[in-house]
## 1
Amino acid sequence: MLYDNHGRQLRYLRLGVTERCNLRCFYCMPEEGLNFSHRSQILSFEEMERLTRILAEMGINKVRITGGEPFVRKNIMELIENISTIEGVDSVNITTNGTSLIEHLPKLKAIGIDAINLSLDCLDKERFLKITRRDEFDQVMDSFQALMDSGITTKINMVVMEEHNLEDIIPMCELTLQHKVSVRFIEEMPFNGGGKKFTPITWNARQILAHIQGHYPNVEKLTDAESSTSLNYQLPNAKGSFGIIPAYTRTICHSCDRIRLTPKGELKTCLYDGGSFSFRDFMRAGATDEEIRNQFRTLFSNRAKDGFEAQQKSSNPFESMATIGG
Ligand code: SAM
């Protein structure tokens, strides 16, 4: 089993499978995109599967496939299917922008994908274009409908940004009245790859909740799972629920069970740490499975207590969520 130096067991791998994305969300990356790594610098499927298998042997039982946009990576379904058959992996989830999800849904359902997080920051075509700089709103809404029809557990991720989508908070909440979906409001973080100047947010978790309660005073607090990153609620008589993720104010670190591997195979023991070790280079230099296991143990024995400490120790400027694996 893999524990950190604060007694937290690691159970959940977030695997970035590509840095590339077909959207250009202004809060995530610059308009012209990033200086993407050469293909040879990105982990192969075999390397990703090997690290996942080793981590599964160490007690990791949940894997999230993310990126960049997972579905822009060639043959991604092959990787997803292989990961879902690794012994010990009980749950495979995907985070996607939904622009090309529909064609993959039947296969994802057949593989038994447990849940899909759809990133959707607003419910308006014009605002979507401004935020993502791409005209893909209709495709994403079609994906949402297809997800609802498919019965796959679905969450919507909406990053809350003053002057950009505050008017979408209540309509997003109201989606849960008709649909069995969990909408999660995420505090904006500084991981934008230099795409914009980050100013500390005022729309934090508390403010978002107060805003919703202003419209729906009888919001019910739900019980949160032990390692949940979201504080979860429900509108009266809703089919779905909503959650708020204090990603910037970081009040949830005490129960963090996550491991992040970037598309280049760097370990992040915390989203806010600069990236401590290259498992790509380690594997390519011939490391054995046992050496890899020991390296995970060593790195997690020096993990920051929370995102503030990790940020303090980090010398890296805030890279894009696309290269981290959001
Ligand atoms: N392309 C996929 C998608 O759009 O869902 C997966 C990668 S994306 C980086 C993963 C999640 O990170 C998305 O929900 C996105 O909104 C979120 N994200 C990106 N930059 C962020 C930031 N600066 N602050 C908060 N969330 C961010």
## 2
Amino acid sequence: MSTFTIDTSTSRATPSPVPGKRTTAPSIRGRKVDGRTETPIVMLTAYTMRMAQLLDPHCDMLLVGDSLGQVIYGLPSTIPVTMEMMCAHGAAVVRGSWHALVAVDMPFGSYEASPEQAFASASRIMKETGCAAVKLEGGEAMAPTIEFLAHRGIPVIGHVGLTPQAVNVLGGYGARGREGAEASKIAADALAVDQAGAFCIVVEGVLEQIATDVARSVSAPIIGIGASAECDGQVLVTEDLLGLFERTPRFVKRYADLASEIGQAAAAYASEVRSRAFPTADQTYRPKS
Ligand code: KIV
């Protein structure tokens, strides 16, 4: 059974406050003209309806990242993330947004075996969430799959460089491309994904110069994370920029300190409950006079 209310740019049933105005994959792709994106593309992760509502007015794209495995579920990596998790959170984010393009990550194991497996998974994600695109990790090896999906009505975001689903092969989450051969491989991966038809490409955790070179040489917009200011856009995990975690990667800039604010609010609540200062007359029901 479907879990969402249809809300895509073309739906007549859209409940959007501005119907028909949701950002589309072609419009994101079209932002890069002659190798240059004038105004960088803004992307953030969102996993819940309320966060989507708050971020949507400010973002071109919302990514329901499989980072939700760690951020929401406390998992050790993105490897155990399931299709059910991605579909439930993807539907919530679509319900909470009307302007940004919503892209949903394909979880580990849902697309690597074959283009046909990828199509079955991606079409399920799109049907169950109402999202307008999927993202999958991998370079040259995934190019035939990206082409297969793109030719069958599925807008795809590529993801190269540090690909967290490959953590067991990479051996950790350190920046990639410190050696010449790996730098060339990242550039070749980005080019292959571009030529396969990805409408934009996330480049994560690579030396700055590699990201700059890739952004200049590849025709699809490059969305950087731990990459370069020269990219065509940027993405961060929202909980990182809000300061919800003590430890964040080096490339994260904290724009708020919500962990402290939440701690202070919880401490004030606990103190007032224990002293019976909460609830007061303002928060209790009395007979109407
Ligand atoms: O899963 C995720 O949130 C991501 C972004 C960090 C790009 O892939």
